[in-house]
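ARCHIVE RECORD
Type: protein–small molecule complex
Small molecule: adenosine monophosphate
Source of inputs: curated submission
Record status: active
Notes field left blank by submitter.
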Amino acid sequence: MPKAQILAGTADTVARASQYLRAGQLVALPTETVYGLAGHALNKEAVTNIFRVKGRPLIDPLIVHIAHWEQLEALTSAQPEAARLLAKAFWPGPLTMILPKAESVPELVTAGNPTVALRMPAHPLARSILQASGLPLAAPSANPFGYISPTTAQHVADSLGERIAWIVDGGPCERGLESTIVDVSGEKPRLLRPGPIPPEAIASALGIDSIAVATKSEREDIPVEAPGMLTRHYSPRTDMTLIPCGQLPPPARGGQAAWLALSRASAQNAPRGYARYWLSETGNLDEAAAALFSLLRKLDSQGLDHLYVEEPAKTGVGLALADRLQRAASR
Ligand code: AMP
Ligand code: MG
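STRUCTURE (tokenized, with ligand):
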């Protein structure tokens, strides 16, 4: 396989990418969450290649991306009212819904589950390619399984450049965290993965007080705990420790240590001996989310002995940020 070519986000690229995808080939493309490794979701060979290229276990189901509600109807066997409400409120956008699958969806995509994960992304290039190809696209993050998700075309090239042929460049991802996942296939909607859309907003769109959060023991319907929900995930190689929001790392004890704070002010309060970084000038959590994976990659390439990261309070998008940080720090 030739080294991946990075294609500028032009109309010509949209046409080419659609052609490759229709031919069953894989294309990495930008979404507002992270870059995805896309393939025709109903083409088993394409889907098999997605798993192979990522080194992703076959027990980890894929999210299928669509451009229209009609595609949701074609890929599901029922469309609960909760799905309509959430689609109306958040699609196109960083929300994935779990729904009962239609026969046409290969079991490979859903890892044998009777349900399918669907998302309508908002990124203009992702939308154009979905529309031009007319295909539902399975598209997990375009990175080797378990490593930090890519938020630029260069990140994709850095880790999958030898294994794929095409990367569509849409600039840095606006949200920078994987989608919020809500299971609407059962009696009561449940939050499966926190993401850019906070649980409070989901509950409000559904007209309920709060949304239930799925726990591991509840998930017996799923062969194993779905990764993306694995304890260790999104992981840098550097040793990483979380420090609760508002506190500071311990005095430096030699070696190369860095402090990654939520705001510039908190970065500057680090004890002596620390290299200082911040996720947002003012501590804005949406900005911090957008910057997180890119900064983690950068810091992970610096051969640090230790990285301390400030963990946000778990409200709003802080819940998703804290979730990703905990998985990244877990050994
Ligand atoms: P990603 O890693 O962003 O591609 O998202 C894939 C994740 O979506 C999986 O790891 C699961 O956590 C979740 N997912 C996908 N399909 C299903 C499904 N049918 N049921 C439950 N969770 C799913
Ligand atoms: Mg992933």
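CURATOR ANNOTATION: The longest helix spans residues 285-300.
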